[in-house]
Amino acid sequence: MAPPSTRTSTCTGEASRGTHLFHPPRAPGRRESVRSAPFSIGGYDWAVRFFPDGGEGGALALLLELLTKDAAARASCAFRFLNLATGAASARWPVGLLSYRPGVVNKRAQVSTFRWNVRMYAHDDRLTVECAVTVVQEPKVSLTSWAMSRYEETPSDLSGHLGRMLGEKEGSDVTFDVQGEAVTAHKIVLAMRSPVFKARFYGPEGEKKMGCVAVEDVRPAVFRALLRFIYTDSLPDMDDLGDDDGKEMFRHLLVAADQYEVTRLGLMCEDSLCKSLSTDSVASTLAFAEEQNLCSLKDACIEFIALSNKMDDVVASKGYAHLKSSCPSVLLDVLEKSSKLHRV
């Protein structure tokens, strides 16, 4: 039997694309924005605004502006930083399709990132910003006849099945004694995701008939979150945890990820900690980064403190006393970084 036929309306709009390179200085002035030269795409004139200190904690910010007078345009864009000397390029920061008017700053069009994310792209004390713009013209509607497929492609549900298999314990062949709490799992799944588990269960020295494995140095909730990531590639739901408890979970989970060599989990936890820095938490996070030798997280904390201009709040936070007593040398890094930034 032939598939049913249907008629549908299709909305299409012609698009014009272009790219502009902008070379702002690394630090043209505290909180002063710099505008690029005008450039034309899709029949409109545009400019990029660069804010060297335009975000939370002194983050860099970029913004697309429409310059054409008495006009309105719909466009999307994506920013990235380039090092023209080495060919290195940062990840793209996309901005979805938005409406633009001249003289109106659309904050939804702004992207921001910490300075430490882009410093490797500086050359001769200058940055190169690439802005790729897609201008969408007024849409046109047309009728289309098409045969409806019997089958529609559905998203993968592999992680969901694996997550249920972990939760339902079906076919589990190893039990972990995590500080007195029994946690069951499947050795083959753990071995696929962790070199440590693979060596333990299937290596030359592995105990293949191992029935119960003692885990003394990881909390039960953290170990369950580690297994959940191994099975589903997803971080734990933090909605039921407060802000401080969520950061604490990420710290413990990062340590467990390093212990079991689940690299992707460690990078995701470190990135989450970088994005959640605040004056209340940055001191304790910096102490943790120094103790665990996490260079990217340490750099992010130092730059956050140096750029936030809220050193008194940082000193008054709960974690500062521990930072001062356990890692006093790192405070010199903060002072040196702050001194360099204020000389620029």
How would you characterize the overall build of this protein?
The protein has 344 residues and is of the alpha+beta class. The protein is 36% helix and 26% strand. It has 11 helices and 14 strands. The strands form 4 sheets. Strands 3, 4, 5, 6 and 9 form a 5-stranded antiparallel beta sheet that branches. Strands 2-10-7-8 form a 4-stranded antiparallel beta sheet, with no helix packed on it. A hairpin with an 8-residue loop joins strand 5 and strand 6. Helix 7 (282-292) runs antiparallel to helix 8 (295-308) and helix 8 packs across helix 11. The relative contact order is 0.10. The model is unreliable at 1-6 (pLDDT under 50). This is BTB domain-containing protein. Pathway: Protein modification; protein ubiquitination.
Identify the notable features of this structure and list them briefly.
single chain; 344 residues; alpha+beta; Potassium Channel Kv1.1, Chain A; 3 domains; 14 strands; 36% helix; disordered N terminus; BTB domain-containing protein
